[in-house]
From TrEMBL:
One of its GO terms (molecular function) is nucleotide binding. K(+) binds at residues 161, 224, 264. SUPFAM superfamilies: YjeF N-terminal domain-like. The keyword Isomerase applies. Residues 96-325 form the YjeF N-terminal domain. It catalyses: (6R)-NADHX = (6S)-NADHX; (6R)-NADPHX = (6S)-NADPHX. Catalyzes the epimerization of the S- and R-forms of NAD(P)HX, a damaged form of NAD(P)H that is a result of enzymatic or heat-dependent hydration. This is a prerequisite for the S-specific NAD(P)H-hydrate dehydratase to allow the repair of both epimers of NAD(P)HX. It is an enzyme of class 5 (isomerase). It comes from Discostella pseudostelligera. Its cofactor is K(+). Belongs to the NnrE/AIBP family. NCBIfam families: yjeF_nterm. This is NAD(P)H-hydrate epimerase.
Length: 395
């Protein structure tokens, strides 16, 4: 399976490695990327994603790691996209009840001092990465056959699950996909107002209802970010209609339905297959589930493709909540990643050659020296240019 790190992390590492050590090997770079990656995103049965920040492969064991410091950012729990199967036997992380999930959330924001905005950004980024992997997948292209951008509809609810959807929409657009948001009830909290503004600034349409006309856009993926672990009872309007519309689009347009943390309408502790409940008989059947931090109890009844995203648990807290830890291993990168690594190595070599041309001796193990020398070389060239100009002008 593949773990993914965010582009920002990659960029940071590129910048750091370029400045601090030009001989940093691609494999060291990849290991470093894995070790600093703050979240986990998805799993991925499609190891050949061309998304360039996909850096490492993890074993199935990795999906069980709850340690934020050593685990890959996202891990898939099921390994076969075509034959859906239960993940129960594959999962060693334990499941959280709705009450425990809320308590864990509150505790993350007290003892380790995470703020909600921080957690939501990590969660939303992990969601975007999993969605990218699912929608773009093996095809490795962000466009459709007609060269239109692949398009993701994100249906966002009134709480933090909806916030994860808003964050994910922004990242997906930065990843090169088209996004449309349906946000029936806007939160008046300042952070949510900002999230909406950030999406508007990217030109993402924000609608009140799901466009259902046949002539309207076909969505490659639909992200269900309506309800998370604080949902209870039967969905009220306008969300009941939104859920029904998502089911219709999934069935008629063959859009991939991806639920964030909890399939909306499912009982967080008991799942969505309770035949005694009329609504649940019509409830949505997501193709993909992205559990945040840890799967909730209902996930025992989910049989589709399963990712874990946004794992930021310190080990002591993981232990407290019965989340089992295993050692995480980083295996060889995918062939795509190797391509990427090769490109990076070539870039380093190019830089090295350029530096050698520019001066007799450069200590390549010291960034300060390199930049100073480059700066010196540039200033020398500029001085020569000025001298020439002066000679031309004044003889
Ligand atoms: N640590 C983590 O893992 C992190 C988790 N994060 C995310 O937060 C999610 C939990 O967020 P949350 O607590 O805000 O609740 P969530 O489920 O989004 O919705 C509550 C809203 O739904 C409403 N509502 C409820 N029942 C309803 C019904 N039957 N019909 C209609 N409405 C109903 C309810 O309204 P109320 O009943 O209060 O009137 C309220 O407005 C979690 O799943 C994950 O996605 C990340 O962002 C950060 C890190
Ligand atoms: K959801």
């Amino acid at each position: 399976m593949v773990s993914i790190i965010g582009r920002s992390t990659t960029t940071l590492l590129l910048a750091l490695s370029t400045r601090r050590n030009l001989f940093l090997s691609a494999s060291t770079f990849a290991s470093l990327a894995v070790s600093v990656s703050p979240f986990t995103a998805a799993a991925v049965t499609s190891p050949s994603s061309r998304y360039k920040s996909t850096l490492c492969l993890c074993t199935a064991d990795e999906t069980t790691s709850a340690s934020s410091s050593s685990s890959c950012a996202a891990a898939p729990l099921s390994t076969d996209t075509n034959t859906q199967r239960t993940m129960t036997n594959d999962l060693n992380t334990g499941y959280l009840s709705a009450a425990d999930a809320a308590a864990l959330d509150a505790e993350l924001m007290s003892t380790p001092g995470f703020c909600l905005e921080q957690l939501m950004e990590l969660a939303g980024l992990a969601v975007a990465e999993a969605v990218y992997n699912v929608v773009v997948g093996d095809a490795g292209t962000t466009t459709t056959g007609e060269e239109k951008k692949k398009h993701v509809l994100l249906v966002c609810g009134p709480g933090n699950n909806g916030g994860d959807g808003l964050v994910a929409a922004r990242h997906l657009v930065h990843f090169g996909l088209a996004a449309t948001i349906v946000y029936p009830k806007h939160s008046t909290k300042p952070h949510f107002i900002n999230l909406v503004k950030q999406c508007e600034d990217l030109g993402i349409p924000i609608l009140d209802t799901i466009p259902m006309e046949v002539s309207e856009e076909r969505f490659d993926g639909i992200v269900d970010a309506i309800f998370g672990f604080s949902f209870s009872g039967i969905p009220r309007e306008p969300y009941a209609t939104a859920i029904a519309n998502m089911i219709e689009l999934q069935q008629q347009h063959k859009s991939i339905l991806i639920s964030v943390d909890v399939p909306s309408g499912w009982d967080v502790n008991h799942g969505g297959d309770d035949s005694t409940n009329e609504f649940k008989l019509q409830s949505l059947r997501p193709d993909v589930l992205i559990s945040l931090t840890v799967p909730k109890l209902f996930a025992k009844y989910f049989h589709g493709r399963h990712f874990i995203g946004g794992r930021f648990l310190p080990p002591a807290m993981a232990e407290k909540y019965g989340i089992r830890k295993t050692k995480s291993k980083v295996q060889a990168a995918t062939s795509e990643s190797e391509d990427w690594a090769a490109q990076y190595q070539a870039y380093l070599e190019e830089k090295e050659v350029a530096s050698e041309v520019n001066r007799d001796h450069i200590d390549l193990s010291n960034t300060a020296d390199v930049s100073e020398t480059e700066e010196e070389s540039w200033t020398v060239q500029y001085a020569k240019y000025c001298e020439e100009k002066e000679r031309d002008l004044f003889g």
